Amino acid sequence: MQVILSSSLKKPVSLQDQKITLHLILKYFLVKMPIRFGLSPRILLLFLTILSGTKWSESARVFTIINSCDQTIWPAITPGENFNGGGFELKPGQSIVFHAPVGWSGRIWGRTGCKFDSTGTGTCETGSCGSTLKCSASGKPPASLAEFTLAALDFYDVSLVDGFNLPMSVTPMNGKGNCSVAGCVADLRPHCPQELAVKSNGKVISCRSACDVFDRDEYCCRGVYGNPVVCQPTYYSKIFKQACPTAYSYAYDDPTSIMTCTASDYVISFCSSRFVLFTFLTTSHDYFNYDSNQVSFILDHDFYIYMIYFIHPLLISYAKVKVIQMQK
């Protein structure tokens, strides 16, 4: 099979076309071209990164969900119509990509310790939304939670108001404006106050909020405490805030916790550093696994997420890949 690049400004019309095109382009630009011109693939990658910055579509946002944990997790999303029905399994090192329309408003969290049968019925130790794999209801606290409202100006945050079960961060990509990283990359479970800790087999698996444990107005920001002037940080919320300065630690923790960005895509990472983009440069592998029957697709190596956001839009703008089957 031979890959021929021809000048064209026409983008692939389907997501499947984009996936195949990306795979073929990567092979050409990161394997054949560096060898032909004596370039280091990493130098070429950095050069293309600087030049890139366009988006696949201005009418939708690309969400990439990464599991960097050392255990399988079951991400949940509500509303989940654009996210594989609202729930799925994600093994360590796997990532998955979805598209959400402007106007979507929802939440994303991770579930742990789940057991589902072939019908998608089961239970989870943390973050459960009932007895189903695909969530249509909110998760049971405690659970780390990412919240989004997509509009002309996007709003997003990571909230620990209902407790903590997994390190979680939201990184905007290719957006305009403030576009800060939100989240909690620290693992609060080993340092959770004993009175807030949830344990399984002697191990802390999540950390409850003070509101959930004590059910008092000063912790829940309700009653006479139901406004930002009266409801102030507490001993427990300060523990969360010190460990996770860009996540909500209590209901009125807005100034340092709610983020905005325009026309951005988003990477939601579980159990990874906030500098996740730099790790993509060191985990490349010539493998791309996609399913033509699915709107979403699995990326088995984080490197390809980096390529999708930075390299793919640039190359697609200048080249249309044509595949010609060579006759024997």
Write up this protein.
It contains 7 helices and 17 strands. It has 328 residues and is α+β, with helices and mostly antiparallel strands. The chain has one domain (62-287, 296-310): Sandwich (Thaumatin), CATH 2.60.110. It starts with a strand and ends with a strand. Belongs to the thaumatin family. Keywords: Disulfide bond. It comes from Arabidopsis thaliana (Mouse-ear cress).
Structure at a glance:
Disulfide bonds join 69-271, 114-124, 129-135, 179-261, 184-244, 192-207, 211-220, 221-231. This protein has helices spanning 15-37, 41-51, 210-214, 217-220, 235-243, 276-279, 303-318; strands at residues 2-7, 60-67, 74-78, 95-101, 105-111, 115-116, 122-123, 145-149, 154-159, 168-173, 182-184, 197-200, 203-207, 259-261, 265-270, 297-299, 319-324.
CATH topology: Thaumatin
What is the CATH C level class, in words?
A: Mainly Beta
What pattern of helices and strands is seen along the backbone? EHHEEEEEEEEEEEEHHHEEHEHE
Largest pleated sheet: 6 strands, mixed
Question: What's the CATH superfamily, by name?
Answer: Thaumatin
Structural shape: globular
- Per CATH, which architecture? Sandwich
Helix count equals 7
| Spatial extent as radius of gyration | 21 Å
| Structural domain tally | 1
* Overall average pLDDT: 76
Disulfide bonds: 69-271, 114-124, 129-135, 179-261, 184-244, 192-207, 211-220, 221-231
Organism: Arabidopsis thaliana (Mouse-ear cress)
Keywords: Disulfide bond
Pfam families: Thaumatin (PF00314)
